[in-house]
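W.,

You were right to be curious about this one. When I first looked at the sequence I had no strong expectations either way, so I just let the prediction run and decided to look at it fresh. Below is the sequence, 493 residues in total, followed by the output.
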Amino acid sequence: MSAQCLTKAFGGQQILNSVDLKLNEGEVVLLRGENGSGKTTLLNILTGNLEPDSGEIFYSADATPRSFRFPRRWWRKLNPFDHFTPESVAQEGIIRTWQDVRLFGTQSLVDNIAIAEPNQLGENPLKALVLPGRSNREEKTIAAKAEKLLADLGLQGRESSLADKISLGQSKRVAIARAIAAGTKILFLDEPLAGLDRRGVTDVLDLLEALVRTHSVTMVIVEHVFNQFHLQHLITTDWLLSDGKLLVSHPKSDVLDTPTNTTRPSWTAMLATDDSEIVDETLPRGAMLTRIRRSDSFSSASSPLLEIKDLVVKRGERTVLGLDQDREPTGLNLSLYEGETVILQAPNGWGKSTLLAAIAGLIPIAKGEIRIDGVAIENLATWDRVHQGLRVLSSDGNTFPSLKVKEVMQLAGTAESISEIPTLADRTCSSLSGGERQRVGLLSILPGRVGIYDEPFSALDMSNTVKAAELGRPRGGQTRLILIPGQSKAKEK
């Protein structure tokens, strides 16, 4: 696969400026760049999800090479066999995954993977009617392959689970498995390790290694700066997007250095000050709580701003939050005090996102108490909890795709913050990269007494991570809870 002179602009802003690239079989590329540099735009173009303003793309992963020159002439669009679409590019073996996982929520995990198998007999009604036995046997074979993929990714036993009933980390693994089932030859991965705990990271890396080693799959990977060190043994080529240009080199050791502390997240130091005290506490089922507070500001006799007692939350009939080490529903107990930043890191499936939803009033609780400043809020509507000083930021779905950025900020009551991202003001949220959407979500949160953020640094480059860390430093009368995937080796269940 290769491309020449790719250009793309949005609203007069030049994102890609005469980009040339070449991908060789078995190559593993790390695609880097600041937020807004064009990484997602380039991935979208190379996978048929977006047309460049000009340039040429040549695909040779399949037996029949194809090329597309842009801008496309109108008469070419009349040819049904010469469309530049995600479907036609996927038929060449060019597959991608997304930052915002796109699964079929009401379908099982097996069905989400099986549906990607190309050229199934069951897709043709006539063949399915004429050859019902053969179609049924093929369907069983495809389902068995899907089950094996799930087992390889540590999701054995969850085959019949609906896609909207699993954690974000689990969803990302299913999305990669679906791309594999589609017969990928060139795989574009947009932050595949984001949202994964240590077990999830290991499972995904093992699978990617097997794809490279056994099947010579070519990969282009976009990954958060704090996760790039996991990929150092895989990467063969480094692509850096800067000022619309693509710079190609070998991986740089300073980019892929392994952090010295693998228990605490690398950005913990950004939340602390010189006079901060950092205290770690263990929680059941492989979770850890890290409290960052000024040593002279904390008193054990003070009343907590957020107090959780014996909290148990279910998803359907299954208890998700409040389980002890023996998986008995004894309830979660947690207190946050004024001036504290508390980091809760736990394995995928532990219940972090469920905890946020329960505190916000988005889902009911089975039992327990939730108090802000001593006021019980477990029976209050979500907007009443906001009036009590609660602010939450979920890990995804933080913007309205059809609205412009300035409209989102106006709705949130933070229109003055648009000055920090002036180039994004008139763009619709659906056109933003993952990092840009995260910045908009963070800037849309008004200060509150209790702030809860689910993976707030996801998709952000280093400079914007530093800015986002300001949210984690509570001002007077505030506390913050940050939820992230855990580094525990505990096996997910």
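Here's what jumped out at me. Residues 488-493 have pLDDT under 50 and may be disordered. And, maybe more interesting for your project: The chain has 13 helices and 21 strands.

Coffee later to discuss?

I.
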